[in-house]
Write a structure and sequence with these properties.
Blueprint (H helix, E strand, L loop, with lengths): L6 E4 L12 H13 L4 E4 L11 H14 L5 E5 L5 H14 L3 E5 L8 H13 L5 E5 L1 H4 L5 H7 L5 E6 L12 E4 L5 H7 L3 E4 L2 H13 L4 H7 L1 H7 L6 H9 L16 H13 L9
Helix pairs in contact: 1-2, 2-3, 3-4, 8-9, 10-12, 11-12
């Protein structure tokens, strides 16, 4: 079991009708996740629409999560940025607010070279005494951190884990706990001896994903049964599908801030069909 948990959900940020942060819905969702398989959450990550949150909203959600956390739920704050000074600031503040760890993504868009990546994470490492989870997601950042670079970064004092969202790089790295960054490699990560996953489908099938940890002899069977849900959560850009799914199972998610737009009717139909096949819409608005 990973020190931060095994089924860690990258929690959405619910919005109200005016697209303001819906704190009540956020707290309710935290409790729902804890009751349905999650033992940790990432607040203000990609799935939490961190890109369109102000720093005040971002840190306010982190503070709320720490204050209202259900018992046994670890809180990991997304604090990454492509501006090292900004990443350091968010990391320092999240640390002060009492998170269990921070998630720090490879700087995006400006695409630093290897020396720049190392220098960036060295500054982030100095900004906290909490565990740092590196986040490798080249499909969004434009830069891949190969496993030998991850091993180099593991030498930093507080870097303890990696969320690996490059399926082709999935491997154990000396000095790092390995977390699946995509739902479809969660089972493979566990089979490799990894520590868990930072997941999206766990918003709706968290109990089943937790069973993949608790029942390794049935892991492949459970994983195969969830493939349609994974596909539905990827029918368009995250977090558009998962917000639609959360609403369908009867919880408040609200809309999305531009440039993200809500799922189309065709996309919603695919999401709804997957949830229906798993009996998740019984008694819920669909």
């Amino acid at each position: 079991m990973g020190s931060l948990g095994t089924v860690i959900t990258a929690i959405i940020t619910p919005f109200d009708a005016d697209l303001k942060v819906d704190e009540e819905a956020f707290v309710a969702l935290m409790h729902h996740l804890r009751d349905h398989g999650s033992d940790g959450i990432v607040v203000c990550g990609t799935t939490g629409e961190a890109a369109t949150l102000t720093d005040e909203e971002h840190l306010g959600l982190v503070e709320l999560a720490v204050r209202e956390r259900p018992e046994g739920l670890t809180i990991i704050a997304g604090t990454g940025s492509n501006d090292t000074r900004h990443a350091v600031h968010l990391t320092e503040r999240a640390t002060e607010l009492g998170v269990d760890a921070v998630l720090s993504v490879t700087p995006y868009y400006n695409r630093p070279n290897r020396r720049g990546i190392v220098a960036h994470f060295r500054e982030v490492d100095r900004a906290t005494d909490k565990p740092i989870v590196l986040y490798n997601i080249p499909s969004r950042t434009g830069t891949d951190m190969p496993n030998d670079l991850l091993a180099e970064l593991a030498q930093l004092e507080h870097v303890t884990a990696v969320k690996q969202a490059n399926n082709d790089n999935l491997a154990l790295v000396d000095g790092l706990e390995l977390y699946a960054g995509n739902d479809e490699i969660f089972a493979r990560t566990l089979d490799l001896g990894g520590h868990g996953g930072i997941l999206v489908a766990s918003h709706v099938v968290g109990d089943e994903m937790a069973r993949m940890v608790a029942e390794p002899e049935r892991r492949a069977e459970i994983d195969a049964s969830l493939r349609d849900v994974y596909a539905a959560m990827g029918v368009t850009t995250n977090p558009i599908p998962v917000k639609a799914a959360v609403e369908m199972i009867g919880l408040r998610a609200g809309g999305l801030r531009l440039p993200l737009v809500e799922a189309s009717d065709e996309e919603k139909a695919e999401i709804r069909a997957a949830l229906e096949r798993h009996g998740l819409l019984s008694g819920a608005a669909s």
